[in-house]
Design brief:
This protein is mostly helical and about 140 residues long. Helices cover about 75% and strands about 0% of the residues.
Amino acid sequence: MSTSALVLTLFIAWALFLLVLMEGIRSYLVVSGRTKSNEFTPDNANLSPFLQRLARAHANCIESLPIAGGLLLVAMVTSRTGLTDVLAPWLLLARVAQSTTHLVSLSVFAVNTRFFFFAVQLAIAIYWTWALLAR
């Protein structure tokens, strides 16, 4: 398996982990009688600040998956993973760091840190797009 394929799989696994965590907590809230199953909103607005941040962190992953994942797939199907393999682990690290920072805090420092990790992913995606189109 190429590094690009591994990173794509791990990216999907990270999004799945956040979803399972969110649904696990929601299930606990229903089973414990703290919330009714029909009271959940997509953004968890009626729940704790942590669950609201978790919903947003998961949504951020899903929003960026078509771009990052699509570029990784293009590299794989065109046998050009040499263009993506080097930076793929950095993209994943930035994605996980962005999500984790989102879960931990909404302070100004955390939001700025989260934006930095987003900017890293954006820069990598722009570079990959250019590199895949240029060759």
